[in-house]
Specification:
It is a single chain. The chain is an alpha/beta fold and 446 residues long. The chain has 2 domains: 2-134, Rossmann fold (3-Layer(aba) Sandwich), CATH 3.40.50; 158-432, TIM Barrel. The protein contains 17 helices and 14 strands. It has helices at 27-35, 70-82, 92-96, 98-102, 116-125, 176-180, 190-198, 216-227, 245-253, 268-273, 278-281, 285-294, 312-324, 342-349, 378-392, 395-408, 412-432; strands spanning 2-7, 41-46, 60-64, 86-90, 107-110, 132-134, 160-163, 165-167, 185-187, 204-208, 232-237, 256-264, 298-305, 329-334. The chain has a 6-stranded parallel sheet, sandwiched between helices. Strands 7-10-11-12-13-14 form a 6-stranded parallel sheet. The protein has a two-stranded antiparallel sheet with strand order 8-9. Helix 7 (190-198) runs parallel beside helix 8 (216-227) and helix 16 runs antiparallel to helix 17. The structure holds cobalamin and iron/sulfur cluster. Cobalamin binds at residues 10, 22, 24, 26-28, 31-32, 62-64, 66-69, 88-93, 96, 109, 112-113, 140, 161, 163, 166, 175-177, 208, 210, 333, 338.
Length: 446
């Protein structure tokens, strides 16, 4: 028995390579591979960097699907099904849109695999494939199997992704995670995480977690164990962590140099609209940010624009805010109505979706606004995101923040990472815009 694993790409511009900052190791594939029984042969094609052999000799094709990769995933599935291969799909988009995905494959896996992977393989062997395997939020593995992408490894960014937890207790209306994990949080066993970290190639780690501080006891125990590894790491947190001096200290001591925080908006009306006004209740935002910086930890600040109170003024204020705090790096993304989220439903009910299934729409490109914003037009919103990102990543701004970065940490490694990431993002502002979703992926330049 042999299975073929596929990670579909988002898309690329003709003649250009795939966006560099998206080229992280495909942890999802490593985890799926670890769940497949050992005696099953396997191969992996990474659509972002290599051609897919549709004529490969395989018994089944397993494709992981995100909303942005759905169009491409359905195309790939069609190629294999034409050749008589059975196709199984799973992942975020399949869980959020099971009926749509089911039309393009032979079976879907909804939510996390759990024991369903074993069952799926047995059913494939016995020719008794079911149309749907219904999973639930759970931690389903001890150690991810990175050997599955040994061949492709050197094309990925030199960062090791290790999962620590899944889900988040909050319920922000636009967030796929809140829906997928029913606003719950589960974490892996600390020893499993540490053992996996020890076996990773790159000593810079991205701890994959939607909100690592959701279970405070777990987080503290983990940081104490990580400290023994003498490594450098980053993760995603919510701002409330800054209220806890002891945890901040532990994070820094264990090698945390940067955290990604989803501020989303600095406007309280917008925060209310997205059900994230709890961040405003935490206290003085500026004070909490300063505490994180004082602890010697840099911030990747993520903002989303397009909520009902957003105008150009919101961009101006957010840029001032970002410069005031001298963030290591920022993301100014436009709001996206991901299927299955309350935001999607609200826009649909209000007749504000420009296209119901924007992710499948012919000619849809990355950065296109798929809903009607309230106080600016869709085109203005797109242009404003580009304009203010460009301002933040101007060389003058990079230089100024580079000095602050050096004052915050003398670690050469982090200062090098600062320049590398900021220069990369400087050029990617325009490279990202207009990437045709699902297109140009059969080209040999990848
Ligand atoms: C790391 C990460 C990244 C990395 C690398 C991504 C990569 N593919 O290599 C970077 C930073 C580059 C990134 C970029 C983006 N990301 Co991202 N990312 C993540 C993050 C934090 C972890 C992904 C991961 O490895 N999870 C661990 C694995 C083990 O979990 P899993 O994927 O859910 O897989 C399990 C099940 O779903 C199931 N399963 C999954 N696939 C399949 C397939 C089959 C056949 C079967 C049987 C089972 C199965 O089995 C697995 C084990 O239980 C997730 C959030 C999260 N917690 O997952 C967001 C997330 C996937 N990203 C998201 C988004 C939107 C993006 C961007 C579009 C952001 C942007 N505006 O630029 C880009 C797109 C990049 C791309 N796809 O190429 C969204 C996707 C939402 C959606 N509806 O599709 C998520 C869910 C975040 C969120 N808050 O909503 N991302
Ligand atoms: S805090 Fe972050 S991960 Fe949690 S629901 Fe809100 S946006 Fe999603």
């Amino acid at each position: 028995m042999k299975v073929t694993l596929i990670l579909p790409a988002i898309g690329k511009k003709p003649g250009e390579k795939y966006l560099k900052s998206w080229l992280m190791e495909p942890l999802t594939i490593a985890v799926i591979s670890s769940l497949i029984p050992k005696e099953v042969d396997r191969e992996f094609f990474d659509d972002r960097i290599e051609p897919i052999n549709y004529d490969t000799d395989t018994d089944a094709v397993l494709i992981t699907v995100e909303t942005y990769t759905a169009k491409r995933a359905y195309y790939i599935a069609e190629q294999f099904r034409k050749r008589g291969k059975r196709v199984i799909m799973g992942g975020y988009h399949v869980t959020l849109c099971p009926d749509e995905a089911a039309q393009h494959c032979d079976a879907i896996m909804v939510n996390n695999c759990g024991d369903n992977m074993k069952l799926l393989i047995e059913d494939l062997e016995n020719n008794s494939l079911k149309s749907c395997y219904q999973g639930k939020p759970c931690i389903d593995y001890k150690k991810a199997d990175r050997s599955v992408y040994k061949r492709q490894q050197k094309k990925y960014l030199p960062v090791s992704l290790v999962e620590t937890g899944r889900g988040c207790f909050h319920n922000c209306e636009f967030c796929s995670i809140a829906k997928y994990y029913n606003s719950g949080y589960i974490h892996r066993d600390v020893q499993d995480i540490v053992e996996e970290m020890k076996s990773c190639k790159h000593k810079l780690y991205f701890l994959v977690d939607d909100s690592i501080f959701s279970d405070k006891e777990f987080a503290r125990e983990l940081f104490k164990e990580i400290k023994k590894l003498h490594i450098t790491w980053t993760t995603q947190i919510t701002l409330d962590i800054a209220r806890d001096d002891e945890t901040l200290r532990l994070m820094k001591e264990s090698g945390c140099e940067m955290v990604l925080i989803g501020f989303e908006s600095i406007n309280s009306g917008n925060l209310k609209q997205m059900n994230k006004e709890w961040t405003a209740r935490l206290g003085e935002r500026d004070e909490l940010i300063e505490k994180i910086h004082k602890a010697g930890i840099s911030i990747y600040a993520s903002f989303v624009f397009g909520f009902d109170e957003d105008t150009e003024e919101s961009f101006i204020r957010t840029l001032e805010f970002s410069k005031k705090h001298q963030f290591f790096v920022i993301a100014y993304n436009h709001l996206l109505a991901f299927p299955g989220t309350p935001t999607y439903k609200a826009f649909q009910d209000e007749g504000r979706l420009i296209c119901d299934k924007w992710w499948l729409q012919e000619g849809y490109t990355f950065g296109t606004i798929s809903f009607v914003p309230k106080l600016v037009t869709a085109e203005e919103l797109r242009a404003l995101c580009r304009k203010y990102k460009t301002k933040f990543f101007k060389f003058g701004s990079i230089f100024q923040r580079g000095i602050t970065c050096f004052k915050r940490t003398k670690k050469l490694y982090i200062n090098f990472a600062y320049w590398y990431i900021n220069i990369l993002f400087h050029f990617e502002v325009d490279q990202r815009i207009g990437i045709p979703v699902g297109e140009n992926l059969e080209e040999l330049i990848k």
